[in-house]
Give the backbone structure.
Amino acid sequence: MTGADEPATGPGTVKKDTAQYGMCALLAVVGGLVITDALRLRHIANSNDPIGPKPVPVVLGVLLLVVAVLYAVDVARGGSGEAEAGEDVDPTSPIDWRTVLLLIGSFVLNLALIEPLGWVFSGAILFWGSAFALGSRHHVRNLFIAGALSLTTFYAFAIGLGVNLPAGVLQGIL
């Protein structure tokens, strides 16, 4: 095959990445959903907030739609994202299923134990399990760090945000 039968693949040709249109569609759908949901909010205005809660999500939804359109135009013109130069990732390497499954297990264990044990213990298990899954083998040190992180986040949510995480078996102590 030569001549007109061959596809153009020279340096002046641009190969369109049509899979990017899926991301454009996703952004447009999310933008539409955000706008639709925001328009269903009741108008609650008071002297401290005369415009109510609607404008911010409506603006964000419109911005998502604008980004979707601009992205689609860019893809139609042949634009494509550049490979991340700063990351040391080999896209041809296989997925490390052991790490993925250990991380999923840590999250599932956290979900199962957060009510009966409370956030401090389930969060510590989550943090320790995540560190183990990602390759850290300093088990005792990680246990202390996980406990400190879970206590810190427990109090940060309770005091800083006013969100009470489950105390579980430490109810009345924390």
Remarks:
- The two ends are 76 Å apart (CA to CA).
